[in-house]
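just leaving the lab so this will be short. what follows is a protein written twice so to speak, once as letters and once as structure tokens for the fold. can you read through it and tell me how you think this chain folds. thanks a lot i owe you, the record is right below.

___
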Amino acid sequence: MPDYGHSLEFGVFLPPAADRFGEALRMAQAADVLGLELVSLQDHPYQAAFLDTWTSLSVIAAATTNVRVFPNVANLPLRPPAVLARAAASLDIITGGRVELGLGAGGFFDPIVGMGGPRRTPAEAVDALAEAIEVIRALWTPGRGVRFTGEHYSLKGAHPGPFPAHDIGIWLGAYKKRMLRLTGRLADGWLPSSPYAPPDQLAGMNQVIDDAAEEAGRSPAEVRRLYNIGGSFTGNGFLQGPPKVWVEQLAELALTEGVSGFVQMVETEDDLRRFAEEVAPGVRELVEQERTQGPRPKALVAEPVVERLGVLPTQDDGTRLSVERLWDEEKRPSGPVPDPATVYSAAGRAGSQQLVDIHDHLRAELSRVRSLVRQVAEGVVDVGAARSEINTMTMRQNNWTMGAYCESYCRLVTLHHTIEDTSLYPQLRDGDPRLGPVLDRLTEEHHVIHDVLERVDAALVATVAEPRRIEDLRAAVDLLTDTLLSHLSYEERELVEPLARMPMRY
């Protein structure tokens, strides 16, 4: 994807909990002083433990001077667009042009209905969002009384105004194709979150937006690309490691995926400060260097063999969530040292990359399972309301429950391991017998992971019957996270090179 040439902006995504607003306000003020551009809050009006987003944003705006504030993203079904238009314009006037508008179609319709809002199908939600954008922009445009009749919203002579102090951007939280096409047709910006739109999926999503923009007679560059990101300043991997790693990886996204806004999901002031003082200026410097001088720095410094392969194994950052340990990682055997004279074919490199891609899919799906369990545990949604979240995921089942999704994931992992044990590993063993100890260890770990998956299944059954057992489920998913991520990294470390050297059929 191209670099659209937008100036870079950086911001924070703050926790909205009622019992933590003082902390959120301090971090917003710190962001303001440290030179960040954006401060945002998520919007779940049905969540009794959260403060109202617009009230909170107004207080934050009054306590800051420079940052622009926005909902990330506003829950449209519970916020009538005509009222939302006036609220956003009013705060924009009061703050001298420091408001943007993130919009979402609504994802959790059980609690939305519980608050008196409408229940919409996914298609209806997208159509309602398109109508809402028209209503909002009509009320921001000087003229006579506005009349608009839609399936979900209408205006019957409403007078436009007040008018924003600046052109408020409408940024959409979008993931599915219809929403992405709507973004390309009508929106000023795209605002996905990395747990739901990992970096390897950005190019495909961006292409849908670009195609829709061109079909609508717009330049794709008219749609700003922003990205909600989370990570840690320890470990290895995507946004796992010291600020230098963040700088290189975010610069890569800016230059290859067109992302020009990075909004960090922060929990502590220390993380915010490092993001503002070390990451943001570093990304700006690297991107400016590429735009004016070139060449772009590499995202990661790889080992010589990996550089020749062009395939980067995912490193284990060492983070462990559970106190339980099911194997001794120090006793893992290693394979033969690669021959520096080996020449790798295109087919071999493709097979090697395929393993990483499959693992990345498993990691992304695991992240979504963890997010769903966390939301249930924190009371954002109950087990029944989680159905709406699952309906937006890639898995499709007849029984839309949290258990059905997690069980689907468990089956996916088991199928992947079965294919490896019965097809991939025997071919590798025949091709290079020196890999025998590594393959034996990997097979043993497959059995351990299978047992962990059984524990997750048991915890799911218990939680559906007794929601208070959610902590048992979270502990089981933590253990699954530790074992699976450790195993995938070990497998890539040992097999990326042999797979490229001996192309397989799997």
Q: What stands out?
A: The longest helix spans residues 346-377. The chain has two domains: 9-240+258-267, 304-501.
